[in-house]
């Protein structure tokens, strides 16, 4: 029986609470103890009962639909340093935790993988400096890690969806539906900026779901002349056919083919100057992260949480850490390191303008 810790880390995403609930209850169901590690890696670095708390069945009651993460999340610079991870190692051992499930984005999962790889040297140092006993050393020789992807961006390689992606998409679509009404009333154009970092999934899917006139995504850059001509042409045609509203969606990572960011202001200026449209900018901001999780994210987080507990209980010292994914509608395990590497390679290829490579990496997922 392993003692299982669950942590949410990095940017918050609706469905993280459902993941915590599933892990806690699946662990208890299997006769293990479950622990919440609060405030992401900060909880590991700080340690103690304020940050590492045993969770009982009732402690996660009502969490299934709640947005955000009740156990907190944070960006923790100390964990990027070896001394921070050494403290993390000590605090996990003090709490008696053998397995750690991390629900976060690619940064959090990179940290988790590094932590496991470094564990033997960290625990050795703790023993040599008498910070842990030989008995603790023998029991905690290995740390078992499992990743779950919580991210609104849906930007992780090897999994079709990330926990929070569809909730955020739903929020964006609702917001654009609201904007539609006022846009039509005044015959205005709206330029809407959406989140997603290097990934255009949210922008593209929101554009399809709301029949936007034009969409900017990082994966399909063009020269300033090309996008300006193309956008004006399309919007002009729609207007000529009597459409009274114009919606243009700009992903926050959108860039031109010479790597310049495309801002909502750039897009607005073109719509005003070339088409004479009364144009407003709407930046949805953190509204996109908030609210309750949609059914898909609740189900995804629950099924993946159950699988994550199963995975950490089956892991041996020699098996690579798994990432719990969804592939063609099936919950499955993928190698964590490969998923994180691939995600980073796609982002790097996009920012280096090697779009063919980026697309082939995505296609081969
Ligand atoms: P996300 O998980 O959403 O991608 P971040 O990239 O901010 O978010 O990562 C969240 C946290 O994960 C960081 O604040 C840090 O504590 C930890 N982390 C990220 N990258 C590393 C790394 N290379 N080594 C160790 N810890 C890391």
TrEMBL record:
Locate the residues binding substrate. 151-153, 188, 195-197, 252, 280, 286-289
Q: Which GO terms describe its molecular function?
A: 6-phosphofructokinase activity; AMP binding; ATP binding; fructose-6-phosphate binding; identical protein binding; metal ion binding; monosaccharide binding; mRNA binding
List the active-site residues: 153
Q: Name one GO biological process term.
A: vacuolar proton-transporting V-type ATPase complex assembly
Compartments, as annotated in UniProt: Cytoplasm
Give the main location.
cytoplasm
UniProt keyword Transferase present: yes
The residues listed in the UniProt record as binding Mg(2+), with positions renumbered to this chain, are 106
Task: List the GO terms this entry assigns under cellular component, sorted alphabetically.
Answer: 6-phosphofructokinase complex; mitochondrion
Binding positions for ATP?
A: 11, 75-76, 105-108
User: Which family does the similarity line name?
Assistant: Belongs to the phosphofructokinase type A (PFKA) family. ATP-dependent PFK group I subfamily. Eukaryotic two domain clade "E" sub-subfamily. Belongs to the phosphofructokinase type A (PFKA) family. ATP-dependent PFK group I subfamily. Eukaryotic two domain clade 'E' sub-subfamily.
User: Subunit structure, per the record?
Assistant: Homotetramer.
Please report the name of this protein according to its UniProt entry: ATP-dependent 6-phosphofructokinase
UniProt lists the gene as PFK2
Which residues of the complete protein appear here? 184 to 548 of 948
